[in-house]
Amino acid sequence: MLQIKIATKRATVTLLTVMLLLLFTACGGSGTPSRTNASFNTTATPDTMSAAASTANTPENLDEAVAQLESSNTMRIYRSGTYSIRFSVTVSADDSNENSTSERYVCVDGGKSYEETTSESAEGERTIIMIYKDGLSYGFNVQERTYSVYEVPDGEQRNVGFDYIEKLQPSGFGSAVVAGMTLPYVEYIRTENGAIERWYLAGGELFAIETVQGKWHTVNVVTEVTETVPDGIFEVPAGYAEVSE
Questions:
Q1: N or C: which end of the chain has fewer CB within 10 A?
Q2: Low pLDDT (below 70) residues in the chain
Q3: pLDDT score recorded for residue 102
Q4: Residue 102 burial by CB count (10 A; 0-12/13-18/19+): exposed, middle or buried?
């Protein structure tokens, strides 16, 4: 039987979440990634994206900018509630010249989500996996093949996948450099914490999401989007043992 942790485990849940967020990093730069959007059967390079961006219709106001973003296939998939998406992530801070990088894989199906983040460190490759379903958070130690289960307290239920779109308040639009390209964006404010997000378009599709919160800057570059999730992705993998924290 699953050992469910209750409110006394809030600090551990928070720590795991912070670790996961700080590992959402995109590399100290080994070139700009190309983008494959499997659900659309299209492949775009940075050069073709920049060309498409330069010839795209320039919105005249915020409503038009939001409408362009909402008309993309990527947003349609997000709002469908079932999808898989891969990101290359870079995290940097205002008080440091260094950044950290990782690869992030997210699967969402209704109220369930799977998040896998892989990064490199001095100790070698590290992978963090979190599964959220039925009001529970599952944290996996991939290296030790163990996992722990926590009950998420009322009021702290995790926003699954990109359902948090509904908590974004449009605040502006423009263009800026992201991943080495100048691209148009729509800027939002997260209503619950005041974080700023810029959603960048290239070739009519979502290319990256940049989040600024305090001194931290996180850039998630979309590398693949599909409208399906793998079978069994929300289940505990075979060979993992549950442990108490």
A1: N
A2: 1-57, 154-164, 245
A3: 95
A4: buried
Q: Which of 117, 108, 88 is nearest to 218 (CA)?
A: 88
- The Cα-based distances of 42 to 39, 76, 114 in angstroms read 8, 16, 25
